[in-house]
Amino acid sequence: MKNLLLIMVIATLALAAGVMTRLQTGVGAVPPAAALNFAFPDVDGKLQDVSQWQGKILIINFWASWCGPCKQEIPEFIGLQKRYADKGVQFIGIAVDDREPVLAFLRQVESNYPMLIAGNAGSALSNQLGNIIGVLPFTVVVNRQGQIVHRQPGEWTEKDFIEVVEPLLAEKSDKLR
User: Fold this and answer.
1) What's the rounded mean pLDDT across residues 44-51?
2) Which strand (E) or helix (H) includes residue 141?
3) Which of 28, 96, 140, 146 is a Cys-bridge partner for 32, taking CB atoms 3.0 to 4.6 Å apart?
4) Separation CA 139–CA 130 (nearest Å)
């Protein structure tokens, strides 16, 4: 009986390690056309289509007002958006949440990047973009050509940003606005 339990624990840990490795390395990347075809309303109810940011480096962050780590990383994202906006970087927050709790949070933290309200549809998109275990926060980085170049379950720091995004800044695109 103990051997069976030990085998089950080891198998579970191996599965979890494989899932995390897959998420970190981007194996099984979603084709760009499928990955970047979404539109959600912003906090004012205006529909925002991802195509308006075509040609920019996108940092798409899935979050929720009830998620502590999500709320911790947003002020850092605000600073990064301010510093890198003129270099073609665009943060997009996608709240896997309802409008009212998001508005309550944004009364405390004034965002300088779009916050879209997606509810359950945000969870589905997050899953489609590689968040197969449904963790929040979850961040996806898309290069200027519309290709997913990085996925990160859990908190994303300025150090992560520099490692992933700085090399992309050197890439040029004729689509850059």
Assistant:
1) 96
2) strand 138-142
3) 146
4) 10
